[in-house]
Amino acid sequence: MKIKLNNTTITLVKPRQSLDKQFFEKEAPIIKKRNIDKFGLRRRIVFLMDGYKYAAHAVKKRWGIDVYFFEAGHGLLKSVYMDTSMNKQAAELWSKKMNEEENFMQLLEKEISDIVKIQKKLVASIPKNEISPKQAEKLITDYLDYWLKFWEPGLLWFCIENIKEKIDDEIRSSFVGTKDEADQFIDKVYRPIKHPRSSEEQRELLDMGALKGQALDVALNKHWKKYKHLAMHDSIGDTPFDIEDFRERLKITNQKEEYKKAKESLKSADAEIKIADELLKKTKLSPILKRKIKFVRSFMFIRTETIDYMTMVFEAYQNVFHSLSNIFSLPFDAVLNMTFDEILSSLKNKKLSVPRNIILERTKNGYAFLITPRNSYLVVGEEVDQLLDVIDDDRNKEKPSELKGQVAFPGKVSGKARVIIDSKHVNEVEEGEILITTMTNPSYVPAMKRSAGMITNEGGVLCHAAIMSRELRKPCVIGTKFATDVFSTGDLVEVDATTGIVRKIT
User: Fold this and answer.
1) What phi and psi values does residue 318 have, to the nearest 5 degrees?
2) Is 281 among the domain residues?
3) How far, in Å, are 167, 288, 294, 333 from residue 173 at the CA level?
4) Is residue 341 part of a domain?
5) Is residue 89 a part of any domain in this protein?
6) How many whole angstroms from its chain centre is CA 411?
7) What angle do CA 367, 369, 371 make, to 5 degrees?
8) Is 176:308 a contact under the CB 8 Å cutoff?
9) Which of 260, 294, 388, 429 could pair covalently with 447 via S-S, beta carbons 3.0-4.6 A apart?
10) How many CB atoms are located within 10 Å of the residue 498 CB?
11) Mean pLDDT value of segment 120-147
12) pLDDT of residue 263
C-alpha cells in the first residue's frame, strides 16, 4: 500500500510475523555481531515502533547509517535495545560535516527546532469530537509524516554525547590556560541555551504559591490544562497528569523551607546558563570551535523541548485512537498495537485487514518488534523469547553489586533505594530516598525533587537527568547500565557522585 506524505510517497510494508529458517540462518548471525545494548524498559506500543521502522529507512537513505532497533516483552513494559555503534558512526559523520560544511550546524539546528512548529500545528489540527474514518485516515498519515521529520535526525541525536567528547579534545588542545582551567571551562560551558517547556512548568507552578481560594483554583486549572501532557513520555496510551498531581506538588513547594530551596535551585540554574554564555563569549577559542559548543548547547535544549512537545502530540492523538477504537470495535489499547498499514488498510477497506485475535494477542500477552536494515519482524508468543535470545543472550547472567557511571552532579549521599521501572509508579518515591530508574523524563521531576540522589541506567552528561540534577542540586550518577537490575527497593545504597561509583551498603 502506497501513501502520499507532504514531500514524498512511501510504500507501507508489513513486518514479518514469524521467525523462519532464513532469519536464523542469515539475519541472526549478522545481529549477533552488532553492538546491540539494552537501554531501558518502556511502556511500548506497536504503532510507534512501526513508525520507527520507516524512520530507520529514512536515516539509511539520508545518512547512510544502519539502524538496529528492538523491543520485546510479555506485558505493557518492554525491554528496549539499540545498536550503540550507530551513535559513533553518526558522531563521525556529523563532526566531519561540522568541519567541512559551513551551514551544517545552523541548518540541522533549525530543522530540529522546526519540529516544535510541526508538533503544534499537528495538535491544532485534531478535532475534539468524534473523528470520522476519512479524518482518521488523514490524521494517521499526517502522524507518519511528522514522525519521519522528527526521527530522521532524532534517531541519531544521542550521538551528541560522542560529538561533545571530540569537541572537548579540541578545547583542551587549544585552550589558553592550565589543564585544570580547561577542565573547569568544559564543566561549566555545557548548559542548555535556555530552559525547555518542562522546566518552565516548574517555575510557573512555584510562582502560584502566593495565590489563595478561587484565584488559586483558576490558576491551577489553567496550569493543569497547559502541562498535563508532560506525564505522557512513553506513548499515546499513557495517562496525563491529574490536576491533583499539581495541587499536591504545590502544597509541598509552599512549605517555607521547600519554597526557599526550590527558588535557590532555579536561581542557580539560571545563573549557570548566564555563566556559560559569558564563558563562551570571553574565552579565546576559534570561531568554529565556539560554534560547535553553541551547537551542543542548543541541542541540549532542543532535544528536551521537542520531547516535551511530543508528549503534547501523544495526548492530542488519544482522541484519534478512541475514535479508531469505535470504528474498529476494538479496545483503545488494542488499536495502539496496530501497524500503520493495518490501520490505513482497515480504514480504506472498511473492515479489519488483520485478524482481531492477532491484535488482541499483542495487547494482552506482549510482542517483540525488531527493525534491521533488511527486514522488520513483529512476533508474539514463544517467538518473543526466541528473539530476545538472539538479541541479548547475556540477560540472565548475574550482575555486579557495584556499578560505575558518569557524574552528572557531584556529591555523596546514602539512603534507601526506590527502584522505579514504570513512571506510573513515580509517586511512590518518598522524601530522602535514592531514585533509581532507567532514565528520567518530565514526569519524574516531582520525584527527583523528593529524592536525596539519583541513579540511572542510561544517559550522558547532556541527558534530562543530568540537566535536572544540576538544576535541583542533587547528587546524580548516570549511565550505569544495570542499576535497576542490581538494586531493589529498600536496599541501603551509597551514591558517590564524585567518583561515579554506586554500591549497596551491607
Assistant:
1) -60, -35
2) yes
3) 10, 14, 18, 54
4) no
5) no
6) 26
7) 175
8) no
9) 429
10) 12
11) 97
12) 85
How many domains is the chain partitioned into structurally? Answer: 3
Output the pLDDT for position 502. Answer: 95
> Does one domain contain both 388 and 416?
no
Q: What is the pLDDT of residue 382?
A: 96
Q: Where are the beta strands (DSSP E) in 2-154?
A: 2-4, 9-11, 36-43, 69-73, 77-83
Share the mean pLDDT of the chain: 93
Residue 223 has pLDDT above 80, yes or no: yes
Residue 174 near residue 286, CB atoms below 8 Å? yes
- Is 29:38 a contact under the CB 8 Å cutoff? no
Tracing cell 582551567 back to the chain, one arrives at: 181
Q: Which three cell numbers stand for residue 243?
A: 490536576
pLDDT above 70 for 367: yes
**Confidence check: pLDDT of 460 > 90:** no
DSSP 16: B
Contact 249, 436 (CB under 8 A): no
Instruction: For 289-311, give the DSSP string.
Output: HHHHHHHHHHHHHHHHHHHHHHH
Question: Residue 396: what pLDDT?
Answer: 66
Q: Residues 39-61: what's their mean pLDDT?
A: 93
The distance between the two most distant Cα atoms of the chain, rounded to a whole number of Å, is 71
Find cell 528492538 and name the residue: 70
Q: Is residue 99 part of a domain?
A: no
The phi and psi torsions of 477 (rounded to 5 degrees) equal -120, 125
Q: Are residues 393 and 415 in the same domain?
A: no
Claim to verify: residue 7 and residue 22 sit in the same structural domain: yes
| Domain end (from 372, 397, 422) | 397
- DSSP-derived pairing of the beta strands 434-437 and 501-504: unpaired
**CA angle, 304 as apex, 50 and 260 as ends, to 5°?**
140
Residue ranges of alpha helices (H) inside 80-132 are 85-100, 104-124
The residue to which cell 483554583 is assigned:
217
Nearest to 388 by CA among 56, 45, 79: 79
Residues 284 and 144 in one domain: yes
pLDDT digits (tens, 9 = 90+) for 303-314: 999 999 999 999
pLDDT digits (tens, 9 = 90+) for 374-428: 999 999 999 999 999 999 877 667 777 889 999 999 999 999 999 998 877 888 9
Residue 73 confidence (pLDDT): 94
Cα 208 to Cα 33, 137, 261, 395: the distances in Å are 54, 42, 16, 47
- As a 3-state breakdown, the chain gives helix, strand, coil percent values, each rounded to 5, of 60, 15, 30
Amino acid at 403: L
Contact 430, 500 (CB under 8 A): no
The rounded distance, in Å, linking the Cα atoms of 300 and 85 is 21
The verdict on 375 and 409 lying in the same domain is: no
Provide the grid cell at 460: 550522558
Q: Which domain holds residue 292?
A: 110-328
